[in-house]
UniProtKB/TrEMBL annotation:
Domain annotation Barstar (barnase inhibitor): ranges: 1-103
Protein name per UniProt: Barnase inhibitor
Record-stated family: Belongs to the barstar family.
Matching Gene3D superfamilies: Barstar-like
The organism's place on the tree of life at top rank: Bacteria
Stretch forming the signal peptide: none
Organism: Noviherbaspirillum autotrophicum
């Protein structure tokens, strides 16, 4: 299963989160750096539309691994909470289209 890793030690604010996400997921240069854009980019992992350098097959899922999640929880709990909610929102979009969930969140 493909994996994208976010380093919780490097995320202290939203700017850090979006920098880590852009790098981990291969978002394009014009990525909007907000959670709506994050959801939009990861809602196309099976479409191959260039919103991420990652590409999934029809039944494949991407593990989103958050390293040092406990540190992230202490440094920026609102970001971790938003990440959890947004992973669910991405998976809901796939479900609405009759597809299997595309993201699995792993807190390490």
């Amino acid at each position: 299963m493909p994996t994208a890793r976010l380093n919780g030690m490097e995320i202290r604010n939203w700017q850090d989160f979006h920098r880590e996400s852009q790098s981990a997921f291969g978002f394009p240069e014009f990525y909007g750096r907000n959670m709506d854009a994050w959801i939009d980019c990861l809602s196309t992992l099976r479409d191959g539309d260039g919103m991420s350098q990652l590409m999934l097959g029809p039944d494949e899922a991407l593990d989103v691994e958050v390293l040092c999640a406990g540190i992230l929880r202490r440094q920026a709990p609102e970001i971790l909470d938003a990440l959890i909610d947004c992973v669910a929102a991405v998976n809901e979009r796939y479900a609405e289209n009759g597809e299997k969930p595309a993201l699995s969140l792993l807190l390490r």
